[in-house]
Amino acid sequence: MKKRKLSFWDIWNMSFGFLGIQMGFALQNANVSRIFQTLGAKIEDIPILWVAAPLTGLIIQPIVGYLSDRTWHSRLGRRRPYFLAGAILASLALFVMPNSPYLWFAAGMLWIMDASINITMEPFRAFVGDNLPDEQRTMGFAMQSFFIGIGAYVASKLPNLLTYFGVSNTAAEGIIPDSVKYSFYIGGIAFLVTVIWTVFKSTEYSPDELKTFDKQKKLNIPNEHSESWYFNNGKNHLLKGIIVLLIGVSTSFLVYHYELKKDLYVLTLGLISSGGLALIVSGLMQKNGIKNGFVTMINDFQSMPKIMKQLALVQFFSWFALFSMWIYTTGAVTEHIYKTTDTTSVAYNTGANQVGEMFANYNLIAAIVAFLLPVIARKTSRKFTHFLALTLGGFGLISIFFITNPTTFNLEWLPMIGVGIAWASILSIPYAMLSGSLPTTKMGYYMGVFNFFIVIPQLVAASILGFLVSRYFNNEPIYALLIGGISMIIAGLLSLRIQDTKPTTVQNE
Fold it and tell me: What is the pTM of this model?
């Protein structure tokens, strides 16, 4: 029994929901810093307000993946119930976010909005692994990258497009401009409609069929362990938990004692939480017969495929760079190039709109490049393709520092060509390398766990970027982009170390 090869339009339908999902993410990435600043946030406080986005992904994605692996609805299948529920919640959040009356309310809405988007998005990655045979997975992830690029391009251009048609791009102090509000409304509608299209135009394999595929590929990961294994593994978690907990408490004391930037508490409290979690797991695993969902998730995390571990460092530096770009580009462009921090000024809002154009352009480049990357990988290798793309992206970010004339090509296109190529690769190549080594019965969970290596660097960035910019770079956000560019180049170099054992999966689709 083999998975059937799907037609181009079948793959199109199963990926179409990503168009709306990425419109939601793009509106969030390009405009939330603007909303925060409009509501009174200082530039050095922006990273800590953004911590909601990666933190919700860290918590939500593995849980949704684990639950969706164990879900089967007679009409909606395995992943599609989560598509639909998340789309409804995310669409509502997109309508509420630009109407936030206070900064604390906007920060809370970011938590809700990002959680809802993650509920929808996480099963989409597993959806490709579930439904496509190995030889079509590169095409499946490339199709997702295409819709991500198109959706983000359209969403990023919306404020500027609405301004062109006469919608106000400025407002009184503390008020979100109408161009931003209406953009979020359009995004909310698109999110719901495109996801519903995928829900009703796609089908899924049953759990029994998926187990058969795993047996044929010999990808089963053992679920059962002896009582002695649980006890000994629990002792290992106890030792690790104590060490991490002590490090977290000690570093928290240092931050407090030396009155360092409070953003660093995100990192230190993360260590304390991780240590505490390890102690809880230790207690559960040393009790004979404990096999609940939580313990199962921890055991599966320990058993993750080798290539997943190899990709972790690459993902860390890649997403650290992306997060620095998303939260600091608005401040960097308006202050470094337009020489203003006044959110009510024409100069600031012109610069902010250009940031929207920059984000739109890198997503358009990603959409165009998405189907070219498999060709380059087939002629070289997937890891070299990823190295090349990330290196170009790093130099693209660094180039913004040297731009003094914000003409359309200089600012909106030149840096974003490299960033767009990197973005296309980040969205497809790691998943193409990973998916062939994952069992379909745990595909959702491991795709959720893979998100750890996306989220953790964003939490680290939220913790230390504000500190670095304020302490060493005189609160000039342009230096955060320099750090991000260097980080992306490091990610490219590390990708050359990946042992991609199945390069033949990148085939001419």
Answer: 0.78
